[in-house]
Design goal:
With about 140 residues, this protein is α+β, with helices and mostly antiparallel strands. It has three helices and five strands; from the N terminus they run βααββββα.
Length: about 140
């Protein structure tokens, strides 16, 4: 069930690169970009009114099913970055997000992350609650 998503405001958040995010040379370790993107997805959901309490109280979880990233430039210790998360597509049990990590206007990492709604006990895909689907329909 693919549904068009209206393009409105882009969700973004700022973060600072700390020593634990970098390798010995002060360059952000590649896997930490995924952590930055995870934080942005969590904050996107929270901004839509779907914090952890909402999700856990319905015995569901969102798990990453697919990731496709392009690493374009490095980020360094103590830089301030901006991480975006935008709904690109969704269905009854999944959301496809387009995400970027940026320094000023330069895109450092860009990609698509597909998350799937699953039952917390069985870990099998399940339909997202109507409220979440409605929020995806409106866009972010």
């Amino acid at each position: 069930m693919n549904s068009p998503v209206s393009k409105t405001a882009e969700f973004s958040m700022s973060l600072r690169v700390y020593i634990e995010d970098t390798d010995a040379g002060g360059i952000v370790f590649y896997v930490n970009y995924l952590k930055f993107m995870e934080r942005a997805r969590t904050e996107l959901m929270r901004s839509l009114g779907f914090g952890k309490q909402f999700i856990f109280n319905r015995d569901l979880m969102f798990v990453v099913q697919d990731v496709s990233l392009k690493y374009l430039q490095a980020a360094y210790l103590d830089e301030e970055l901006r991480v975006t998360a935008n709904v690109k597509d969704y269905g009854a049990a999944y959301v496809l997000l387009e995400q970027s990590v940026m320094r000023d206007d330069a895109i450092l990492v860009h990609g698509d992350i597909k998350i799937v709604c699953v039952d917390k006990q069985s870990m099998k895909p399940r339909r997202m609650p109507r409220e979440i689907i409605d929020a995806m329909r409106v866009g972010v």
